[in-house]
Each structure stands twice: as structure tokens, then as C-alpha cells.
Amino acid sequence: MRPIxxxxxxxxxxxxAILIPSLNRPKNLERVLLNIRxxxxxxxxxxxxxxxxxxxxxxxxxxxxxIFWTDSDSDLQYFVPRIQALFEKTSEPWxxxxxxxxxxxxxxxxNCFSVADSGTKIICPNDGxxxxxxxxLVDREYIMTEGGNWDTPGYVYHPSxxxxxxDDEMVNxxxxxxxxxxxxxxxxxxxxxxxxxxxNDSTYERVALVSAADEALFQSRAPLWGGQDLWR
Length: 232
What we know:
The chain is built from eight helices and eleven strands. The protein has helices at residues 26-39, 55-63, 79-89, 108-113, 140-145, 166-177, 202-209, 211-221; strands at 6-7, 10-11, 16-21, 44-51, 67-71, 94-97, 102-103, 122-126, 137-139, 180-187, 189-190.
């Protein structure tokens, strides 16, 4: 792993793996791959997980020389298990938990790192809507040694989540450990039906079906860090 370099106690940009799970959204995927190409001059690699039967997305990845893998187990075709699979297949010192429904501004990676210091392990840009943020720049070593959740080292999110509330646990745990910072001046906007800036589709509908189970899991685990949302 490349050592961290410092300037005025601030973290310089590190080689970053941008992880993108994408489920049956080839147009979204092509847009975000182009977006990353034009806004990310810093050292990075982009990795995608798509469905085995999504031929259009596979073609798009090849056309953009994006590294990708495919899966076919429907129970694993959710955000949390796919981010974990991509994490385990990559080795860069930092990861970004991306998706196919966000919009990156130019220089976002440098600007995220610019708010970090020696104690920072999770950097959260502003998504324009969610007060705690949605997508995260994360130190790989932190995941390996402590985990991005309360009690499962080696896992970005707790593996029992499918999608919803996994980010809430990550943020609460990071705040409890005092290793979390916000990059409020870096707008990586989330597009989502809840915000009124994206149409509903079968992927969002599929996520909604596991919302109740994810919520119950979060509530059962919240007492671990004090039983409240620390980011409020």
C-alpha cells in the first residue's frame, strides 16, 4: 500500500478505487463513466459490478475500457453486497462508494482529500439533499482493521444490510470513533425519485422492497453506538 503523504497535516490525494454497482441501467452507467472521466484527473481506477445478463452495460464498460465483473445471484444484486464484492476485488488504498445515479464535479477527489487530516478515515461529500451524505471516500486500511460498521472488520458495510440504512450505521460509527469528516463544499449530487430529480424505475422499486428489513436491522443495532443518530 502506498504510504500517506502529508502537507500542512492535510491528506494529499491518494490512488482511489471508484466502485460502481449498477443494476439494469446502461444509460445511467454510460453517463457516470463519462462523468468520472471528465471530472477526475487525479489517479484513480473505476470498477463496475453489473448483472450477468445485462449485455448493454457490459458493452458500455468495454467501450469505456472500464474494469467490470458480473454476478447472477439476485440476492447479492444489492448495493451493500456489491460494494463488498468490488472492495474485495480491488486493492487501492482508498475507495469511493459510488453509484450510477450521482453527478461528480471537476476536481472532486482532490477537494475531498483537502478536508482530511491524519485522523480522517471517512470523507463524505455533500450530496445536495441528505444531511449526513450518501457516498463516501474511505480508507481501505480502516475497513480491514476496524470495518465501516460497528463489529465486522473487513466489511465496508455490515453484511446483513441490503441497501437502506447501511450508510447511517457507517456514519454513526465513524462519528463515534471520531474519524469522519464532511466535505460540504464538494457537491456530488444524488439523483433519486425522493429528491424529485430522477424517475422511478425497477431498480429503485426493488430496493424499496427490502427497506423494512434494513430499517429493522438498523434499529436493532443502534444501541451499539448509543441508540441515536449522532449526525443530527
